[in-house]
Design brief:
alpha/beta, 13 helices, 8 strands
């Protein structure tokens, strides 16, 4: 199979290599010259524009996008809608909002261009381990993609979850679950580290990997991180959110589904970005006003 890959960063670049290892041909494009240079060094055929991607592929074309969600994806899909032809296929493998994917499928469909939304999980480990793929779109389009999906995923590592939008919806909830898991590990290991027992956090992470009901790939990665830096002194506690945790909480509200763990994990990420919490100052001030409690003038 021959396809185009738009976006050659940590995800798209590695996916191109994995496809090539399976015998597929990839023409790639990225806006960043360093990404293009790195991809070319790994054997990917690199072009310098979206027009170059279209010219490098024979109809019916398949173009896979691995670019940031939001305006980058919107502008790329819009541009491809002008460049591609009836019978061509666009795959969005980024973390787009599922409603945007439904809208894009309708817009491209009016031009005879098919759209598939693919939730992709695996991170930087996907090159060697394979990517978990959650695919939404028409049956015939997904079947057309099957060779690429089987190359990218580990055995039984991809699934056609439903129509357009379903792939990104499932990936959204996947990331919401991830928020809760990460928060639970973070809180648990902070409690362990705060105890008076002088606990070996790396040793605990290692033993929990073997037979424990809380073992997971995330715990494997935590053990690796603690091996490199037992107190994580090289890591800032500032935690970003990609947007999908927010969307999961918003969807839970829309559907009246209680999701307290996911919501609290999201809010904990917001709290991680504050040098000092103003809400905590309000609470301390109120305790002084109503109870005469001592207030620290400076942070401890």
């Amino acid at each position: 199979m021959r396809l185009g890959m738009v976006g050659l960063g940590r995800m798209g670049g590695n996916m191109a290599v994995r496809l090539q290892r399976a015998g597929h041909e990839v023409a790639g494009f990225a806006t960043g010259p360093s990404s293009r240079e790195a991809a070319a060094g790994r054997g990917t055929e690199v072009v310098d524009s979206l027009e170059g991607i279209v010219a490098a592929l024979e109809p019916p074309r398949t173009v896979w996008l691995m670019v940031p969600a939001g305006e980058a994806t919107e502008s790329t899909v819009t541009a491809l809608g002008e460049l591609l032809e009836d019978g061509d296929l666009v795959v969005d493998g980024g973390n787009s909002h599922h409603r945007d994917s439904v809208r894009r499928a309708e817009s491209l469909g009016a031009r005879g261009i098919t759209f598939v939304d693919a939730g992709v999980s695996g991170g930087v480990w996907g090159l060697e381990e394979g990517y978990c793929l959650m695919v939404g779109g028409p049956d015939d389009a997904v079947e057309r993609l099957r060779p690429a999906l089987e190359a990218l995923a580990p055995p039984d590592g991809w699934v056609h979850v439903g129509p357009n939008g379903a792939g990104h919806f499932v990936k959204m909830v996947h990331n919401g679950i991830e928020y809760g898991l990460l928060q639970a590990y973070g809180e648990g290991f902070e409690i362990l580290g705060a105890s008076d027992y002088g606990l070996d956090l790396r040793g605990i992470a290692e033993v929990w990997r073997r037979g424990s009901v809380v073992r997971s790939w995330l715990l494997d990665l935590l053990a690796r991180a603690l091996e490199r830096s037992p107190d994580l002194a090289d890591v800032s506690g500032y935690v970003e959110d990609s947007g999908e945790g927010r969307w999961t909480v918003e969807t839970a509200i829309d559907e009246a589904v209680p999701a307290p763990a996911t919501a609290l994990a999201l809010f904990a990420r917001f709290a991680s970005r504050q040098d000092e919490s103003f809400s905590a100052k309000v609470i301390a001030a109120l305790r002084r006003e109503f109870g005469g409690h001592e207030v620290r003038e400076d942070p401890p």
